[in-house]
Amino acid sequence: MLDLSRLRSQIDAFESYQVASEDRRKLQRRRAGRALQAVADDWQAVRGRVEEAEPRELVARMREDPARTSAAPERPTLVTVVATDGSQIYPDRHVEPTYFLLNVGRVAFQYGTTAAPALDAVPDLRFREDLDRHFDAVLASMTTEVVSALRDEMELEHLLDAARENAVGGRALVALADGTLIRWMIRGMRNQPLEEALIRRYTGYLQDFRAEQFPLASYVSMPGTTDVVNLLRFHLGELGDDGEWVDDETPTLRGFLDRTLFDDVLAVGERSAVFGSASHIIRESYPEGQAICYFYLKIPTGPQTSEITRVEMPEWVLDIPDAVDHLHATLLDECRKGSGYPVSLSEAHEHAVIRADERDAFFRLIERRLRRAGLPTTGSRKRLSKQRPRV
Amino acid sequence: MPTAIGEVIESSTRTFVAEVYDEARSRPDEPAEPAFGEWVWAETARGDEVYALVSHVEIGSYDANRQAVALGMDEEERRREMPMVQELLRMTVRAQILAFRSARSGSMRQTLPPHPPDIHAFVHRCTREQVRDLDAPYDFLRTLVESPDPAVPVDDLLVAALRQVHEAHGAEHGGRPELVAAGRTLSRLLDDDHERLQSILRRVL
Question: I need a surface site. Which of A86, A102, A229, B12 has the fewest CB within 10 A?
């Protein structure tokens, strides 16, 4: 039960805070725009200074003029788009035995042809016997992170399969994953052998993509990253400074996001320069040539509205002729058709998602099978009482 | 066994709903999708053949949470640029059960069956021979008139049912006497409501 009347003064405070933040953001936009131009004017020298300083923060690696913008090229008339997205039923700690379910939606479209699309979902029931000793230890405490990491891995595995099954010789192909290709979330499990095993398996698939030369990219909507802003802060000499104001009229760029910066820089449909990620995970654990690069893209979300998204790809994709142009044009086309989100990822999501009634049917099926085998499940009463609170 | 046109997805002893196979819809040699007012049949788990009249045909989204939206593309462009759309649509038919053929006796009975068709039972269109077996005294018309599908204008369904009687018996080459016999049965059922009967008969031929 939520008593809205008791929230009134807190909402008043929130409104005032937002108004003040917006004023500060306007000043930040101006300062960031000027700083980007200054860095662009002498970008190679700035790059040298960053490399020398080795800042602790994530600072975007420049590969070209950082203020460069590119209009969308024509999409190839014929292009194959494959995409996957996943969902899961997490293990329930109130239920014994432990099991969880991963479900990956896969799509393949042959744009420009009348070939039937491929749309399906692949479920995978995982239980303890499937997992090696590392996983057993962490499942008790780090369930969500491990399951999410395994889901990401399965998404990439099926994306590779989808590319292999649907690639057509001589036709452009785009393989689209959802979310980041940088395994940030794995660091934090505080279990180094497990972290390394997960990253090794994930990057193994990246290597397979490279061997097949399938241009792989991932799509991050509403990115909260600050790599390029950190580059500007480095140039302004304020990186590492926690202060909010340089002087009464000049805010620092603390809290300013890359997506706000590029909202000013890019016209609808344009992409930014390509940057390299300075993530230490990539430096320490990704194989040679698999460094992750990215650009920002301004996509239309309506007649008058737009959004900045981040598109990531392994470094070797940049060496495939026209791959970045094809990716840019195809993503823009997909977002136009999907009202602001790529239709292939959206269809993959729709196929992956496990609805409440399907989830209930899954639990009923499992419980019935275990009961039939003379193995009563325990603890499910708590789950049931959560589903149907009693008076 | 003739090719099935679809499969039962909801079932009772009064009606069943069938999803029509895509292949049936795109078969080039014959129009295979079931039409409003057409006879179809499906089997029960005990082997009875259940006969039903298609009372509703619908095309919609597989997913109740997703609605079709206008795309501004012609069919060719839609297939090239939005290939997923066709995959997300399906045709379903609702059929009103009016008769069954007993597996034990082999006789056709113009009454409701003891059991509904199985979920996933194959649905077939009826042949002319099968429609001819649904003959005088046309007791199925009584079920249709007195217990119609509430969501369907029953007179339009009666028009379609009489037209099938006429066609199954040879149409202009011999179908008339059977149509007249069915019309007489209908006249009695409508309590000699001549205006309504005329309105139905006018639309048959």
Answer: B12
- Among B67, B84, B87, B90, most A C-beta atoms within 10 A, so best to mutate, is B84
Distance separating alpha carbons of residues A344 and A107, to the nearest angstrom:
7
Query: Which residue in B63, B79, B82 is closest to A337 by CB distance?
Result: B82
The answer to whether residues A238 and A213 touch, using CB atoms and an 8 Å cutoff, is: no
Alpha-carbon distance A188 to A373, whole Å? 39
Q: Which residues of A touch B (CB under 8 A)?
A: 107, 109-117, 119, 337, 343, 347, 350
A contact test, residue of B80, B82, B89 with most A CBs within 10 A = B80
Three-class secondary structure assignment of chain A: CCCHHHHHHHHHHHHHHHHHHHHHHHHHHHHHHHHHHHHHHCHHHHHHHHHHHCCCCCCCEECCCCCCEECCCCCCCCEEEEEEEEEEECCCCCCECCEEEEEEEEEEEEECCCCCCEEEEEEEEEEHHHCCHHHHHHHCCCHHHHHHHHHHHHHHHHHHHHHHHHCCCCCEEEEEEECCCCCHHHCCCCCHHHHHHHHHHHHHHHHHHHHHCCCEEEEEECCCCCHHHHHHHHHHCCCCCCCCEEECCEECCCCCCHHHHHHHHCCCCCEECCEECCCHHHHHHCCCCCCEEEEEEEEECCCCCEEEEEEEEEHHHHHCCCHHHHHHHHHHHHHHHCCCCCHHHHHHHHHHCCCHHHHHHHHHHHHHHHHHCCCCCECHHHHHHHHCCCC
Look over chain B and give the mean of its residue pLDDT values, rounded to a whole number: 90
- Helix, strand, or coil here: B122? strand
Residues of B in contact with A113 (CB under 8 A): 80
H/E run at residue B11: strand B6-11
pLDDT digits (tens, 9 = 90+) for A319-377: 999 999 999 999 999 999 998 999 999 999 999 999 999 998 998 888 888 888 888 76
Q: pLDDT digits over B165-180, tens only?
A: 999 988 888 888 999 9
A112 to chain B nearest CA, in Å? 5
What pTM value is reported for the model? 0.84
State how far the Cα of A323 lies from the Cα of A271, in Å rounded to an integer: 14
The region that residue B73 occupies, defined by phi over 0 for left and psi between -120 and 50 for alpha, beta otherwise, is beta
Closest residue in B to A75 (Cα–Cα):
B81
- pLDDT at residue A267 above 70? yes
Q: What are phi and psi of B109, to 5 degrees?
A: -125, 125
